[in-house]
Amino acid sequence: MKSPPVSEREFAALIKQHSQIINNVSYFYATETMSFDDLRQEIYVNIWLGLGHFRGDSKMSTWIYRVAVNSALMALRSSKQKVETVSFDLGRLDISSEIDDAKRENLQTMHALISRLEDVEKAIILLWLDDYPYNEIADTLGLKRNTVAIKIHRIKEKLSKQI
Where are the chain's structural domains? Predict the structure, then answer.
């Protein structure tokens, strides 16, 4: 077996540095058949196994996002059971207690709406909300930039109709 490209300590630091990405993807893709913790563990394993293949063509955060989303999608496909609801525990989010009730309610509503989106739509809007430019979203998800722009516009329309 090929030795890993980083030590366990370096891997732990990498995971800690990018934990928000991993946790966000895990929150939004967790289901009754694939729990948050199981999904996050799957993502960790795939990052560890894939590090030797990272060529540096993109930022590490972009690569980790792609691995996380692909891991989530593959885990959901392999569970073979479609579940319409998404398990979501707002207590796990790093929501400051300084957020007033109105903002907290808006955030909960936004997360509930996003959790109803299709998997690819969810990935696109999460990247967009994390301020990734269209080109990076396209690279991360293997789409064309114009496709991303159109999908973001349609997702925004879809979400605004649900409010």
Answer: 8-162
